[in-house]
Write a structure and sequence with these properties.
2 copies of one chain form a homodimer. By secondary structure, chain A is of the alpha/beta class. The first copy, chain A, contains 13 helices and 8 strands. The first copy, chain A, has an 8-stranded parallel sheet, sandwiched between helices. In chain A, β3, α6 and β4 form a beta-alpha-beta unit. The radius of gyration of chain A is 18 Å and the shape is globular. At the A-B interface, α4, α5, α6, α7 and α8 of A face α4, α5, α6, α7 and α8 of B.
Chain lengths: 288, 288
């Protein structure tokens, strides 16, 4: 199998899209859609996400299920997640599992099972939190080498509180997030070396456009996953520097402003797929 | 309900134990036990953990199921986890769910469901990764205030690679892990103010005894969860400074060296409960 960087870049080209549809099932909103009102939470979340995938898959370079919104229901939530991931994969849509996992090596190996094509999830890529350092990353990096998986390491997150730790200034002049970026660059080095983009990407919040250019330079082979457009206020027009010369070096995640677009579009909730299509088309055009 | 700090301290006193039994089901080892050899992985892991709980609960101040080792099996793994957590709670044993979760606020709220007594898990406490900063901690802190839950924030982890980021020196002279400790102290302030120990604890690796004393001083109200004794090489004798004047300010987690103690004890695998009891009694005595 081609490496994750090449697969994602190929999908970006084929769909002419840099849009990642984030699947964050908020039940208060989904319950407004009449056909889901009587279902159990996991069933309603699954059917809602399957509807989005069926109606909008051609507009996205990837989908990003947020595992927390499924895991909160325990086993039935995991069953719904598995169904959603399987539906995305059947459509050739790369799945970035937003799990932000990270632990010492023996435990990280268990989390890396999420990237095993023969495992219960079989995600293409995983978001990871590398506060624990390099040896804790090894099992995830092995998943890249063995299965052609991808990673997105949290570097500079989209929330205001990201400044509390990530913006602290080090004695050597770098900020903590820049030190993390340098680690990401080192983990990326030599992996999928024949492709322009490697399998070790980075999460950089679209809410910090001033950081995007600088972090792009520190991680020349990392695809940037840029969350925070839409509900969190990030402006797509300010993200040009993220994409690199070939335009394939970044993708923009939006979740709430795509999934619940019927509200802003003033459409009835049952037309949610149509509203999401319109919002995704608009975001795709803004990123073109 | 009493706050988590008070509940854990009460259990420490009642059992005269500072031992946390880490539940990390490694199947290669569990398969050596004849009665589990023919079961499915989740069934074998569940029955093994239930056996440990039944035979050893009186020696522990808490148990710490490592969620990764259950989650790797998807929904059946979560069912096993729920059964193990329920069994611990029935015995009055506080459950620290080792999940190392952390995400932006709306997502962290979903993860905080693990601490809801009416939720599918109902853990007493959760390990969290606070790389994302203070606003991402808010839903977890609200769980402390609302449900009497506890948190253990990753400050200085037990693995060698923890130095990659956590030991970097800041311009103000602190290390990154010390800056994280200061955040923990701030989050702890004013919570469960009538108890000596608050609900916001910290993970500090027992493999770094030189750091334990300094970090204890920076987080005067945080119970320290000290992993890394046993398989990772931490020495219980060097942890005295962690416990505070009343001896209730820290607990020591051991997983592999307790669960698979039959190997070092040269006992047949089917006597695993007896071997774990002996190892837990020995660790309890070393910490007395």
């Amino acid at each position: 199998m081609a490496g994750f960087g090449a697969r994602l870049a190929g999908r970006m080209r084929a769909t002419d899209s840099r849009v990642v549809i984030g699947l964050d099932p908020h039940m208060g909103r989904i319950r407004e859609i009449p056909r889901f009102a009587a279902m159990s939470d996991p069933d309603a979340a699954r059917e809602f996400c399957l509807g989005i995938l069926e109606g909008c898959h051609d507009l996205a370079c990837a989908v990003k299920p947020q595992i927390a919104f499924f895991e909160r229901w325990g086993a039935p939530g995991w069953e719904a997640l598995v169904a959603v991931v399987a539906a995305a994969r059947e459509r050739g849509l790369p799945v970035i599992l937003d799990a932000k996992r990270g632990d010492i090596g023996s435990t990280a190996s268990a989390y890396a099972t999420h990237l095993d094509p023969a495992g219960p999830i079989g995600a293409d890529a995983l978001t990871v939190n590398a506060y624990l350092g390099g040896d804790a990353m090894e099992p995830f990096l092995e998943a890249c080498d063995r299965w052609g998986a991808g990673l997105f390491v949290l570097v500079k997150t989209s929330n205001p509180g990201s400044s509390d730790l990530q913006d602290l200034r080090l004695a050597d002049g770098r900020r903590v997030c820049e030190a993390m970026a340098d680690l990401v660059a080192a983990w990326s080095e030599g992996r999928e070396a024949n492709d322009p983009w490697g399998p070790v990407g980075a999460v950089v919040g679209a809410t910090h456009p001033q950081d995007v250019a600088a972090l792009r330079q520190r991680m020349p082979r990392s695809i940037l996953l840029l969350p925070g457009v839409g509900a969190q206020g990030g402006d797509p027009a300010k993200l040009r520097s993220a994409f690199g010369d070939d335009g394939l070096g970044a993708c923009v995640n939006s979740s709430r402003s795509l999934l619940y677009a019927w509200e802003a579009a003033d459409l009835p909730p049952e037309r949610f797929v149509e509203a999401t299509r319109l919002a995704a088309e608009s975001l795709r055009a803004q990123l073109a």
